[in-house]
Amino acid sequence: MHDPTVFRSMHFERFHGEPAIFVAPGRVNLIGEHTDYAEGFVMPVAINFATLAGISPRSDGKIVVYSENFREERTFEAAALPVKRSGHWSDYPMGVVHVLAGEGHRIPGFSLSLWGDVPLGSGLSSSASVEVATALAVESLVGASYPGPVLARLCQRAENHFVGASSGIMDQFISVNGKENHALLLDCRDLSFQLAPIPDRVALVIANTMVKHSVAGGDYTTRRAEAEEACHILACHRPEIRFLRDATLDDLDKWGDEIPPNARKRAKHIITENQRTVAAAKALLNSDLHELGRLMAEAHWSYSHDFEASCVEADAMVNLAQDLPGLIGARLTGGGFGGCTINLVEQKAAGTFAEALGGRYAAQIGIVPEIHICHASGGAHHYA
Ligand code: GLA
How far is the centre of ligand 1, averaged over its atoms, from the C-alpha of 34 (Å)? Predict the structure, then answer.
């Protein structure tokens, strides 16, 4: 199904309409975890796993959404759009439709087919890629054309308010704005960004622990609430601290005693992670891969010990990579509590690295992992 021409005929056979096709990538985050909703910094990369959305108009006033992954179809009335989630996969595309309707667009009937190869629930932003592909598709139908950062915000709103996951802006932003062969340092305060080329000699090796993660799940929300609690206490002393982005380790030293221990650790992670992320972008821009790898190792330690968002399997996947030839840096990526690790690896060693890591993980954990050698792809677009 990688071939969009197969996807096109699948849509045509089902709906008897010629689809316009849009593609939106998943992402892997090199560094900067749980910093986006604290208005901090992240450095993700769009990857060559994506969602395809095919859309064609209908004249019966219905919205029919089909997922080839789930082999399931759902029908809605364009004149009576759902106003709240149903706990079904269709919440992701319908959340986007709901948000676009809220922006004042009259939503006509349409058929939408979705198919994607972003592994689900693995911390590679399958949901953002569905939202962004749907947004581009529906946008084309209603004749709208939002600038990339605005489109990303609309998709985030669908996820926050319709799907009910309290995620930040990172995933939707990189899916819209990613650039081939580049990582993107994003300032989540004002959505300004800087692209950093990924050298040819570096491969992105993504290792799936096969432990499922969910942003809609309770752990993500608990961590976020703890971070916000810490921020609130610091802000009582220094009102200019609106988000943890504005706080320093000095602030934590001065007023940390007033913060419950867990919340204090979460804040420490976010404050130090922001510093590491900016430093990592600088290292990548200077081709200082040694420094980049060191910062990734520190970030993993902080994610695991201060933020406590890792798990036995992810820690094992990171540890088992450490002495393999070619490794530049490894850490757990995404929302945490499972999912994938990102390993930056010397390109020429990537194949043997992937094989050795998979073997070691299977022997230690008893689960055969999926390991992908990926590259940095472009952002979402109309498939010509
Ligand atoms: C998930 C969320 C993002 C971000 C990461 C953690 O992917 O969707 O907004 O918070 O977790 O960095």
Answer: 6
Instruction: Say if ligand 1 is within 6 A of residue 34 CB.
Output: yes
| Ligand 1 atom showing the smallest separation from residue 127 Cα | 8
Give pLDDT tens digits for 245-260: 999 999 999 999 999 9
- DSSP strand pairing (72-77 vs 182-187): unpaired
pLDDT of residue 134: 98
- What confidence tens digit (pLDDT) does each residue in 164-210 have? 999 999 999 999 999 999 999 999 999 999 999 999 999 999 999 99
Alpha-carbon distances of 154 from 10, 43, 66, 318, rounded to whole Å: 29, 21, 22, 34
Q: Which of 36, 129, 212, 243 to mutate to test the pocket of ligand 1 (most atoms within 8 A of CB)?
A: 36
Considering just the CA atoms, what is the radius of gyration of the chain in Å? 21
Are 329 and 292 in contact by the 8 Å Cβ rule? The answer is yes
Q: Where are the domains of the chain?
A: 4-197
Separate counts of helices (H) and strands (E) for the chain: 11, 12
Q: Which CATH number fits domain 4-197: 3.40.50.300, 3.30.230.10, 3.40.720.10, 3.30.470.20?
A: 3.30.230.10
Higher-scoring residue by pLDDT: 328, 216: 328
Q: Which of 162, 154, 143, 164 is closest to 94 using CA atoms?
A: 162
Instruction: Name the residue of 34, 132, 214 whose CB sits within 8 Å of the most ligand 1 atoms, as the mutation to test its pocket.
Output: 34
CA 42 to ligand 1 center in whole angstroms: 10
Amino acid at 175: S
Question: Residue 42's beta-bridge partner residues?
Answer: 186
pLDDT in tens, 35-53: 999 999 999 999 999 999 9
Q: Which listed residue (3, 60, 91, 171) is catalytic?
A: 171
Catalytic site includes residue 190: no
The residue assigned the tokens 């850490």 is: 331
Pick the residue whose CA is nearest to atom 11 on ligand 1.
335
Would the CB of 39 count as within 6 Å of ligand 1?
Answer: no
Distance 303 CA to ligand 1 centre (A): 13
Q: What is the 10 CA–ligand 1 centroid distance (Å)?
A: 33
- Asked whether residue 3 carries a pLDDT value surpassing 90, the answer given is no
Q: What is residue 215's predicted lDDT score, i.e. its pLDDT? A: 59
